[in-house]
Amino acid sequence: MSTEQPFVRARDLVIRFRVKTDHGSRWITPVDGVSFDVSAGEVLALVGESGSGKSTLGRTLVRLNEPTSGSLQIGGRDVTHTRRSRDLKELRRQVQMVFQDPFGSLNPVRSIGQHLRPLVRKHQGFTGQALEDKVAELLEIVGLQPGVEAAVKYPHEMSGGQRQRVAIARALAVNPTFIVADEPISMLDVSIRADILKLLNRLKDAFHLGYLYITHDLASARYFGDRLMVLYGGQVMETGDADAVVGAPKHPYTQLLLSATAGHGFTRKGDVLNIDAPNLFEGRKGCPFAHRCPLVMDVCRDVRPPLTAVDKGHQVACHAVTGASVHTPVVETSPS
User: Fold this and answer.
1) What count of other Cβ atoms lies within 10 Å of the Cβ of residue 141?
2) Which of 56, 153, 164, 225 is the most exposed place for a label (fewest CB within 10 A)?
3) pLDDT at residue 260, rounded to an integer
4) Residue 323, Cα to own-chain centre: how many angstroms?
5) What is the tens place of the pLDDT at every residue in 22-50?
6) In angstroms, rounded to a whole number, what is the distance separating the alpha carbons of residues 315 and 309?
């Protein structure tokens, strides 16, 4: 774990969107009061099911989404509501994003070299043969060898894993300090997922990169992440050292995710009450996981549990785990 000052610092981030309903429009809050720090050279793995707010949070770091409230600092600068084109360009040079879909993130009518040359020329100043050499070098760094041959290919001539390597090379072309990797292996064949994670890990060491690694898979989060943050319904359920969280999960939701991880062998206590999606509408109360939680109590319906330390660097937001057991448990009965 890095001891440097955080390169990314988020405090109480709230992100709202207006949606249409049968009764008019309402606000949803897919990210609701999230705080975290990540240093250069460190990996924070953000884990949760689809709809938990992971990608919304990741896109906010590159200011594709604007926070409704809270604060976001990148490299010591407050970028919460940055709007100037020059400032946004500098932010996106420092923080790059690798998207989930390697088939949709590349322009099919441009060669691989055409994807990379403008970025290398603008941000690293290379021209002429030096530019061609640098493009080939970037492609070889991400495992596409020989780089000269890869540069003249088009996306349709490459496999999904090779396209994702191109997307990673494109992110590296601007010399970033931080990368948001939004489920970068979920659409790839199982046989090459480990290779992409090994590549990202090697690049972290070689270029001192920080990552926000977004995933729904606790196994890959533990492998790649230094720290782990579990998100549900836009709120942090559990966070801490990756080995500690996966090795001894405290929150019922983390336990649910772990029990669904192939080959882990973890057995959770109790069954989830239902599989309904969390309520994201503004004005909701209590814990967003209460409607599914096997440990639910009266207090869970009404009071949002605060993140509370259960061990050094390990925090959990759960009344049942952190001391609200004096409240009467809710007894769920089946219809007769």
Assistant:
1) 19
2) 153
3) 77
4) 30
5) 878 899 999 999 999 999 999 999 999 98
6) 4
